[in-house]
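Hi, here's the filled form for the chain we discussed.

Project: internal
Contact: R.S.
Residues: 161
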Amino acid sequence: MKAKFNAMDLIIILAVVLVAAAAAYFFISSTAADTDASKTAGRNVTATVEVEFNNEDEFLTTLPQEGDKVTIGEKEKMPAVVTGVRYETAKTTAYDLTKGTAMNQEIPGKYDVYVTMEADAVDGEDAVTINDSPIRVGDATAVRTQNWASYGYVTRLEISE
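And the returned structure, exactly as it came back:
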């Protein structure tokens, strides 16, 4: 049996090819537009970031100084400048099982250190980014300089023009 090829077959094949080409064009162009929009979206702001270092030794209360140039992030490189340092005696929850109560109790020789930093950032649609790396309240992060380093949590993030 010999296969026959007619004009209707040619029109169907041509229609399928055109639909596939149009779908590919729109998919590629919309993906490129999304990528370009995400690069240009956002406005330049100043981010004020506070990182809390829990249960630290006393020496960390004196090492961070205003004006220190720091790097925020473990793998990311988010440059910032220290603008403030405060600390308070570390506390833990103590339980009295005989009375059935719980209370905050100070930990001798341990401190909670709060380091406030400012960095140039971009306020994007989904996140605030410093040097193309997102930063969010609650994130665990490292902060380091040549003189000191520690690991803590972002407790405050404010942006200003």
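Let me know if anything looks off before we file it.
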